[in-house]
Amino acid sequence: MLLMCVPVIGQNAEFSPYSRFGFGLIGSLQSPVHAGMGGMESVLTTSFQFNPDNPASASALSQTTFQGSAVTTHLQMRQGDEAQAKALFGSSGPLGLAIKKQGGKNTLIIGVSPFSNSGFALSRNSETDGVGSVQERYNGEGGLSKAHIGWARTIRSRGYVSAGVADSVLIQTNTLHLGIQTQYLFGAVSRTSTLNVIDPTFLDHRSVIDMKHRSIAPDLGLIYNHLLFARYNDDLSFEKSASLRIGGRFTPQTTLFSEISHLDETTQNLGGIDIPLDTALYIPTESVTGQMPTSWNLGASLIFDHANGRHVGAGVEYTETQWDRVEEGLHLSLRPNGMNWVRSRTFRAGAEWTLGNTEQRHPTWGKANYRIGVSFIQQPYQIEGSQLVSRTVSGGFSLPLIGSRSMSRLHFGMELGERYTEDNGLNENFTRIHVGFSLMPFFKNNWLRERLYD
Questions:
Q1: Domain assignment of residue 239, given as a range
Q2: pLDDT tens-digit profile of 259-293?
Q3: In this structure, what CATH number is given to the domain that contains residue 169?
Q4: Could you give the count of Cα atoms lying within 13 Å of 137 in the half-sphere of its Cβ?
Q5: How many Å apart are CA 38 and CA 36, to the nearest integer?
Q6: Is residue 20 part of a domain?
Q7: Using alpha carbons only, what angle is made at residue 104 by residues 98 and 109, rounded to the nearest 5 degrees?
Q8: Is the C-alpha dihedral spanning 443, 152, 156, 225 positive or negative?
Q9: What pTM does this model have?
Q10: Considering 8, 13, 103, 198, which has the largest number of Cβ atoms within 10 A of its Cβ?
């Protein structure tokens, strides 16, 4: 792993012009499983992949799991009838390791995931009286990431349910997943604005703002699973069951530490290269503090299981992040002209299912887990009084790695979405393809298991 540490440009994973505000576009990448369900965080957990945004989801894993993913995005931008542009780019997704003994109650969580992305490149040409042709260029790069380490624990309770006419079975009736993690937010964002007058008798202007940010916050997660009913036959064999699942996540308001520098200079374009001539304004790197907002999530779902292996789950979630309450404390560089921070709200709905009678179906596709979902997101940006909105339709599936003789899986997800402001300004249509994996130990090499030698 040390030999693989080579210099790279990180977090340039979003070429949207909307990414030039604040930290960039926030929360745009997820793991393939959760992206395929509209981004569900809490109530449609699986035993083979966990959500880094909710630490409680890690305790639902069946055993130690290492997961990672990559994302490819096709972005089509349109403004009016003539102004159009396209971009194709890719990046890495969340990477994580959950260490858990098979059947155990405790889980250790380690990982890193994207938080925001910025990578815009805009230009505009115009004619100005007395000056002639003028070109404006806006460029940016960078983004923020989250490193997290945490702990999750499962609390189970058991009870008796009737089986047949006069018998009963002791089964697990309630499960509570609790999780807490320390989230370290870090990264850098750079924005450059250039005014280039084509007439060489006029000087040009360039403004550069460099920012580094870091913040530490706790994430608290909870998922509660309550058995509604379970049916067993006279032979004490399971037939079917239904469960209600309620989950949520809470992140309190914390301090944001930033290092920001600002440079305005007069330049001259010679041979396509901007040569600095004089400094008009220079604010050296200064340390400032602000606040990261309170964020919370709440959802509910219904889960149905059948004796033939059929599994169906469907749920809804609501997420809110209170950016409007911390706007006043943010540095002016995070509040560009014409842009305001507002409360972000997200509505998600998703479903997952696994086919029954797997032995009578295709050995791979018959054992796959399938997903669909939708989401509606009010982004935390208000541009010229109009809030940025996103909506997506998503789907995906997970395939078991049969040859590995383990619970390892390959994951695929796709998102079809639209991003726009309420005043019908710039409209963006994007398609994201997620490809990922979750690796678990071979059944003869399960981690954290005691060995018996004769």
A1: 26-445
A2: 999 999 998 877 777 888 888 889 898 899 999 99
A3: 2.40.160
A4: 14
A5: 6
A6: no
A7: 20
A8: negative
A9: 0.88
A10: 13
